[in-house]
Amino acid sequence: MWLHLRQLANHTILLVGGSTVRMMATDLMMHAHETQMAAFRESKELQRRLNCPSEWRVAVHPCDAARGYGCTRCVCCCGPGCPRRRHYEPTTVGNAASWGGLFLGWSDFTATCAAYALRIDFSWKPEMHTDDDDAAFGTRFCAADAPRYDLALVGKGLHDAAFRPAPLPAFVAKLNLQVVALGELLRCLPPTTRLLVRTPYWADAARSNGPLLGAAADLVRAAVEGGRFGPRAQLVDAFAFTRNDTRSPTTPPPYDGVHYPPVVQLRVWNSITHALEEGAF
After folding, report:
1. Model pTM?
2. Residue 204: count of CB within 10 angstroms of its CB
3. Spatial distance between the Cα atoms of 59 and 138, rounded to a whole number of angstroms
């Protein structure tokens, strides 16, 4: 199950979410069918071959609450007021385009492949809805001078279950309000942008508070099917094809309980490219 970049040529794509959405970009950028963890442990990661004839050009954007770069209000946050701030958080675009910061950072970045006129904007917004989402969409993604996104994919839910646990009824009530707010926010994207909403990947219960993660996936699924994200939103039910009890033999388990090898990200990309080619959305 491999993807050639010519299938995404001449597209501008927006990805919004946490590490598993970020991996959709980073795994796409790499040839090797190895896990992100194994790739990062290699001592010569800068010499890895890239899936683009002209290679990728990457700008990692410094944290900025006013413009919605990164997430200053998330548990996995950025900025000077963040108690969990990562030591390699970029302070300028120029010093940030390293593989370490790109693969493991909590930052927004823009990756371009000139050979295929492909641009991918990733925005670190791992929780269902915060003020940082409002800032990013209000000042950048939906602004008058925003790129004309052909496709936007939003994938959330894991961090809410893992890092903001609560008794199930309270968790569902709070997250439902945030899903509604996110759905209203995404309506600002122009009608020419195809919108995909991805449920979270299944994760080991010890890492994700299993019942809460299942509830988050259910809420996202019901919101898309119920029109909360508008009539154009299409569901990518990643939770359904990665969950432990229904996962097919061709879908590998998470290598650390949460993150999956590239083949899983590529499965999502293939469904996207098929839809783009068929004009299904």
Report:
1. 0.90
2. 14
3. 21
